[in-house]
């Protein structure tokens, strides 16, 4: 493949070129996945501006061969990436990729339809409704959150989008009764373990920052939000003339994997007519296994539930399932109906109402995400996906036992799902130095290039997180990182002469 002649017209969807370029990219990625464990997990060169120095100041005037582009990716891009699909990536939460996810993504971007209206791509819109009901049943969600039970679901790009949408729905539902001027009285409640995206979302929908309540948690409740703490905060606000609006219950918090008691919080939300959202972005995937469905007990009290198949469900970015008990509440807050978007010929026919997903999200345009999740479900089935989840939970249990058996280390909170939070013990380091030593340990592990982990701070303590969930991560990789941690701990402690 050479460069195009200077006067050659561009043929962007020539079938032969499409096939050839696609094969070249697939071969490139296959080679990458064969060798991904050979790259430093985190980019070795973290100096900002590196890539700008390597690339030209302006785009090329004439097209270039794809092999030249891929060679530049290999030489300039790959060394500057953090390799999220490395089997030794244990940071943040997993961001799964899979063969089925990639195949579904190829179908999505290849067909490149935009199903914002039912009429814009009927099969795409209807497949989405089918797939979110499939997912809801796999997770054991109550029927009231499914289309088959009067609720419904949509595939968002991220939890952040789902949060803004549900906050807007809750806001408008409340203001329809109170009047728009009452927006200054609305209050949102979360815990100190809740993801910060809820604070951002509350600001975006106009909730005053002074009306955002971050309720403390403690080790006594496993850092879960208690109904008593919520009740006390709500009662204080009600006594001050404020209006409780929205309560978030998290199943699998980002920092520690903590679980809030959904049923108890749901009952408290109903006491004041609050919108209850259940955020199961990471841990929701585990609920396809019967042994984990108890964590969603009480979901029938929720107004909305969300989880991210792109985290731990072998579905390539981006894909977030959002279910709502009342689609009307959501669409009332998000719908627009200009003449140029009306579905001509679909109304008044006596047929089931079409779903226009533009009214279920922030943006108008949207991707055909449903086909990606559908391919994953079809290719792996519930049995294969449960095995994927259980494999990582088993590895996390092994790691937790290894940490607990080592006198230098301690497990900070009991393991939940596949996240283990640990650190070097104070008695071997000293109270004044313990956080610094753990910071150095984490930095040493990450700088080795052999693994990548992140941290959290709870009760003033610096904690190291090991989040297991990579599509290629096996028990042997977890054993390897444990050996690496032990070796680096010895090096760090020697520097402190301990």
Task: Tell me what you see in this structure.
- There is one protein chain.
- The protein is α/β, with parallel strands linked by helices and 498 residues long.
- It has 2 domains: 13-42 and 82-95 and 381-498, Alpha-Beta Complex (Aspartate Aminotransferase, domain 1); 113-367, Type I PLP-dependent aspartate aminotransferase-like (Major domain) (Aspartate Aminotransferase, domain 2).
- The chain contains 14 helices and 11 strands.
- Strands 1-7-6-5-4-2-3 form a 7-stranded mixed sheet, with helices on both faces.
- Helix 5 packs parallel to helix 12.
- The longest helix is centred in the C-terminal third of the chain and has 37 residues, at 369-405.
- The chain is globular and about 65 Å long.
- The termini are far apart.
- The mean pLDDT is 93.
């Amino acid at each position: 493949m050479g460069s195009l002649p200077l006067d050659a017209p561009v043929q962007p969807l020539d079938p032969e070129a499409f096939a050839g370029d696609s094969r070249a990219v697939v071969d490139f990625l296959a080679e990458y996945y064969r060798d991904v464990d050979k790259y430093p997990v985190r980019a070795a060169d973290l100096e900002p501006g590196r890539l700008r120095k390597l690339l030209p100041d302006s785009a090329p005037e004439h097209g270039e061969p794809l092999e030249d582009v891929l060679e530049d990716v290999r030489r300039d891009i790959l060394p500057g990436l953090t390799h999220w699909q490395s089997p030794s990536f244990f940071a943040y939460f997993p961001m799964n990729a899979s063969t089925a996810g990639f195949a579904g993504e190829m179908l999505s971007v290849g067909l490149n339809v935009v199903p914002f209206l039912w009429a814009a791509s009927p099969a795409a819109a209807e497949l989405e409704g089918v797939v979110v009901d499939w997912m809801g049943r796999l997770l054991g969600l109550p029927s009231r959150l499914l289309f088959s039970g009067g609720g419904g679901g949509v595939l968002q790009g991220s939890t952040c989008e789902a949060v803004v949408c549900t906050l807007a729905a809750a806001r408008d539902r409340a203001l329809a009764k109170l009047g728009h001027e009452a927006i200054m009285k609305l209050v949102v409640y979360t815990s100190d373990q809740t993801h910060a995206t809820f604070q951002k979302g509350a600001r975006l929908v106009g909730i005053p920052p002074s009306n955002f309540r971050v309720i403390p948690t403690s080790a006594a409740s496993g850092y879960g939000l208690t109904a008593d703490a919520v009740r006390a905060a709500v009662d204080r606000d009600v006594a001050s003339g404020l209006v409780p609006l929205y309560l978030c219950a998290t199943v699998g918090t980002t920092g520690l994997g903590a679980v809030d008691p959904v049923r108890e919080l749901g009952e408290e939300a109903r006491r004041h007519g609050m919108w209850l959202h259940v955020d199961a972005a990471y841990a929701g995937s585990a609920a396809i296994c019967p042994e984990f469905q108890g964590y969603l007990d009480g979901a029938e009290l929720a107004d909305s539930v969300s989880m991210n198949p792109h985290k731990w469900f072998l579905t390539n970015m981006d894909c977030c399932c959002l279910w709502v008990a009342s689609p009307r509440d959501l669409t009332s807050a998000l719908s627009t109906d200009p003449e140029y978007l009306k579905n001509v010929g679909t109304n008044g026919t006596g047929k089931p109402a079409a779903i226009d997903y533009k009214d279920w999200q922030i943006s108008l345009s949207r991707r055909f995400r449903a086909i990606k999740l559908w391919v994953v479900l079809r290719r792996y089935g519930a049995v294969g996906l449960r095995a994927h989840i259980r494999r990582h939970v088993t590895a996390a249990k092994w790691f937790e036992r290894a940490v607990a058996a080592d006198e230098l280390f301690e497990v900070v909170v009991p393991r939940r799902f596949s996240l283990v939070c640990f650190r070097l013990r104070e008695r071997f380091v000293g109270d004044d130095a313990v956080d610094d030593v753990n910071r150095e340990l984490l930095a040493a592990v990450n700088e080795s290039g052999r693994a990548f982990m992140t941290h959290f701070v709870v009760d003033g303590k610096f904690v190291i997180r090991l989040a297991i969930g990579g599509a290629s991560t096996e028990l042997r990789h977890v054993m390897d990182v444990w050996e690496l941690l032990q070796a680096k701990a010895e090096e760090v402690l020697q520097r402190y002469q301990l």
